[in-house]
Amino acid sequence: MKSIKLLLFVLLIAGCSYSVYTTGYPHLKTIKVLPIENQTSSYDLRDIVFNSLVDSYESDGRLKLVGLSPDCQIECSILDYSNKIVTYSGSSIDEYEVRILFDMIFTDLKKNQVLWQNSSLMVSERYSLSDENSQFRSEEEAQEEITSKLFDAIMKSTLEEW
What we know:
Mean pLDDT: 87
CATH architecture: 3-Layer(aba) Sandwich
CATH topology: Rossmann fold
CATH class: Alpha Beta
Oligomer: single chain
Strand content: 35-45%
């Protein structure tokens, strides 16, 4: 009998979950990610950023991606892109830094208001081709991390805003 009570207690506790996700806008259930505008000569960035945002919203699950009649939308422009040498020793390059400058607008379409806008959001990440201890080993890996940071910045400034 004790084991049944213990099992029921464990199931009850497991059924009650606490979510770290909050939303200051409970009326927002769906989102549309508009096509990315790319003002740089790195043409593949448009697709990289768009696909990353779509994947992040799908994985996150707080807002469902839709094509028609969304509750909110995200607009993104890539204003600048750079991949510069940060450190070097002698004739070899030790570390690079990728920087992407974004113009972001998150709009609540139900209430017809801009919830967040940042016209100079700079996100950067470093990588090294030669340092085995470097967290990122290629420009592409640095770009992936930047798009992940971009999504986090959007969520912290919109749905997670208190």
